[in-house]
Each structure stands twice: as structure tokens, then as C-alpha cells.
Amino acid sequence: MTLKTAAPKSDCDSRLQERSQEAKENLLDLRFRSLLTNTDWRRLPEATRQRFSKRVSDGKTIVYVGHVTRAHINGYGRFLANVLRLVGAPLPISEDVNVPSVVAVTEDVKTSGQIWTRLYANNRKFPQVIHSAKRFCGPTGLEEYIGFGISMALTVRVVDGALTFCSSDYFLGIGNWRLKLPGFLHPASLTVKHTDQGEGRFEFELILEHGVFGTLLHQAGLYREERNW
Which positions ≥6 away from 17 have C-beta within 8 Å? Predict the structure, then answer.
């Protein structure tokens, strides 16, 4: 009779940890999925659904690399972008195209949201880096926080196959107070589109519009996932 020797405890523990890690990685992130109806979710390309179902928790980071393909800022848009530099420069300030751009997405442990860091190179000076956090809360279920107590509620919909985020209300947080800004204080209407382009690529498009001053800012970039660690 042949006796089988049990694997050393350290080897068993190592395998269990590997399997546990694999199980975590295979779990889907359903937070964006929950903001859409079943019908709208199915209208999205499979690649988009996978991209917005990927977990980035446990200290992981997803990095997308690409380049700016379109950039236009009108006079009032440039004025607004420069004024907002006082609160962290949340809007692009360059109209350079065909310049490198990088987007990194990490988990925000404090708020259980996501931190998005966008880097835009230009032809004259250091790249601009824009930080914002997506928080799954508020009246629409999703908010974009840019710092200094400023956030905006986002509605999520599917338009022509693109996952589209539209600004709803703007808020200002002061200590424990949270104030909803009246309509006349809204800087503009923001629309962000995520459009799959096939072959692992997608377009990120940002449009800022004002009822009086027209399209203040229109920027687009083409990206693909470079690394996930």
C-alpha cells in the first residue's frame, strides 16, 4: 500500500491564498451596471460592459494610454478653465492635439469610489494632471468630486451605443454642510462619452456647454488599456 504524503502546510496556505486572490479578481464590479436598466446595459458593446465591470480594488490600478485627437476651447471656456485653476484645474487648458495622454483608475478606499487621474501632455510646458473621484452616492447614484468641496451629480445613460455621463446638479460642501447650487450658478452642462472603437480601443470625449456662451470646451482622446496591476 502506498501512502500519500500531505503537502507541507506552507504550500497549502500559498495555494489557498492564490485561489482566494483569483476569486476576488473574477468578481465583477456592478456599481456602474446598477445605474442603468437591463435594456440600456445590453445596448452597450461587450467591450464597454467589461471595461466598466472590472474590479480595481485591493490597491490595483488600471492604466489607459493614448493621445488627444480633438481639442477646442472658446474664449469663455478658457476664462472658466483658468479661474478653476484656483481649485485644482479640473478642466483641460490646452488645445494641443496628437499629444500623449494617460488615464489611471484606482480605488478610493475612503469613499468606496474610484479616483481618476488624467494626464495631458502639451507642446510648451509640463503636462497637465487632473484628479477627480467618482463616488457612488447622491441623488443620481453617482457623483464626480473635484476637490475643495465641489461635486456634481451625474446621470448615466446610453446614447448611440456610447456610455454617457451628464451633469445634473452641482454641490458645495462646507464642513458638515452640503449646499446645492442654484441653476444660475452652474458653470455649464458637462457631458462625457465613452465610445468603444474596437480592437481594444475607446474614445473618451468631454463636452462643456453653456446656454449663452455655447460650447466652451470640446476634447476627445483615443485610448487602450496598457496595464492592470
Answer: none
